[in-house]
Amino acid sequence: MSERILIGTRKGTFIVTRAAGRWTLRLAGHAGMGVNFVARDPNTGTFWALLGLGHWGAKLSRSVDAGETWSDAPQIKYPAGARYLAMPDPTEDNPSMQGPVSVRDATLLKLWCIAFGPTGRIYVGTIPGGLFESRDGGESFELNRGLWDHESRGGDLFEGEGTGNTHWFGTPASEGGEFAPGIHSILVDPKDANRILVGISTAGVLGSSDGGKTWENRNKGMLNDYLPDPAAEWGHDPHALALCSAESAHVWQQNHNGVFYSRDGAQSWTRVSRPDQGVHFGFPVAVDANDGKTAWVVPGHSDMQRMAIGGGLFVARTQDAGETWETLREGLPQQNAYDVVYRHALGCSGDRLAFGSTTGNLYVSDDRGESWQTLANNLPPIYSVAFE
Amino acid sequence: MPKVVLTRHLYQYFPALEGRELEVDAETVADVVSQMEKLAPGFAFYICDERGRLRRHVNIFIEENLLRDRACLSDGVEPDSRVFIMQALSGG
């Protein structure tokens, strides 16, 4: 079990360390800045923070001394000629975004997630819908053209006008208010770096079997209750993806429309929600590193009520691939608790789990979620929780 | 040469600029930004996006005049101009 937790919040980066049986929390950098995601590259030991600086844009920051000092990294930028198809932004005059899809120049709106492949490659997911890859330890990043030019989003707009038709829609998660698609989940198979999955709000899941050269739809079995055809090929809204390190064919998805599970590397999905137990809506999902049938979610009431159900916070766990769920409440507040936990704010390391809420509460469990301990109550809204 | 005055917020990201008299060889605001980039690598991407457009919540004034060309920063500056790079006070 890891003894250190990296926390990204709306107002800075925090690090929690366990020593002599006690957890100690400290502000480790980026005071006052939005930190969407903090993680440690297991290949180099470098800490990476994905910042949203408001006025000054999205920035990559890194630390080579375990969070003691931070400096700007070489920045991710969309290359000249990168364009995408987009709906009009919602405005006071046009709140429902009526109007034709138009071609826009791509500029970096948000750095949303970072992932590390087994061969040392680093991947960053962005809004608008970019997958950036570094093959030199983060000294430079390149836009993945196979995904950017994918037919599902209108084809190659570098060279021409494409098909004019996109199946990638927006997410309200962009920091500037723009409504553009975003990549929030990147899973690289630890046993085979050629196998990559990405989760996009809103399009669904795409997968590559050739290291990112080509991509295909991985939404078979998905259901979106907000579409005329719930089983449509595109238009799904994964909130987060997770895969089992030891059994990497086992993939989990907390979706806007429930919890989904795949036993075949996201070739097909089954909805395993249990709304009667409160297991349906939510953002994060974590999976056990060794047992692909064991996963945890932190449910919210519904998309219309993005908060804990009935004022009692709980974690739900399945150990049989979603056949049954347990609701784990010991040590978590059960009265007047209305926390919501964002998609990157649940972490797992061995038997230890941790999660943080937008209410600034941070909890840890050393027994696979059976019981919980409060680590903090007054943090800024928590965006990411990752064991190093 | 034109003088550049920065919002103190930028010193948080570029502490080496704090307390310095910033004078740059520039005929346009675009020149000012590119000269500042030489002084402080990374500076331009704080002020502009990757297309060279001024970020939405950044303002540049030449003396008391707000920059007009936010797309290309082609507004001219005089040798005795002061150029102010500020954050827009958007929101509450």
Give a summary of the structure in a few sentences.
Chain A is mostly beta strands and 388 residues long.
Structure, explained:
The complex is a heterodimer of chains A (388) and B (92). Chain A is mainly β and 388 residues long. Chain A has 1 helix and 30 strands. Chain A has one helix at residues 145-148; strands spanning 4-9, 12-19, 22-29, 34-40, 47-52, 58-63, 71-72, 83-86, 102-105, 110-116, 122-127, 130-134, 142-143, 182-188, 196-201, 204-208, 216-217, 238-243, 251-255, 258-262, 270-271, 282-287, 295-299, 315-318, 326-328, 346-349, 352-356, 362-365, 373-376, 382-387. The relative contact order of chain A is 0.12. Chain B has helices spanning 29-39, 43-47; strands at residues 3-6, 22-23, 58-62, 65-66, 82-87. The chains are: A mainly beta (388), B alpha+beta (92). Chain A binds chain B through residues 53-57, 59, 72, 75, 77-78, 80, 105, 107-108, 176, and chain B through 9-10, 13, 42, 45-47, 49-51, 53, 55-58, 87-88, 90.
Low-confidence segments of chain B: none
- Structural class assignment of chain B: alpha+beta
- Supply the number of structural domains of chain A: 1
The CATH architecture of chain B would be: Roll
Main beta sheet of chain A: strand number and arrangement?
4 strands, antiparallel
Low-confidence stretches of chain A: none
From the alpha-carbon coordinates, what is the Rg of chain B to the nearest angstrom? 12 Å
CATH architecture of chain A: 7 Propeller
Please give the largest β-sheet of chain B: 5 strands, mixed
Overall shape of chain A: it is globular
Overall mean confidence score, pLDDT of chain B: 95
User: What average pLDDT do the residues of chain A reach?
Assistant: 95
Quaternary organisation of the protein chains: heterodimer
Number of domains of chain B: 1
Number of helices of chain B: 2
Helix/strand/pairing class of chain A, anyone? mainly beta
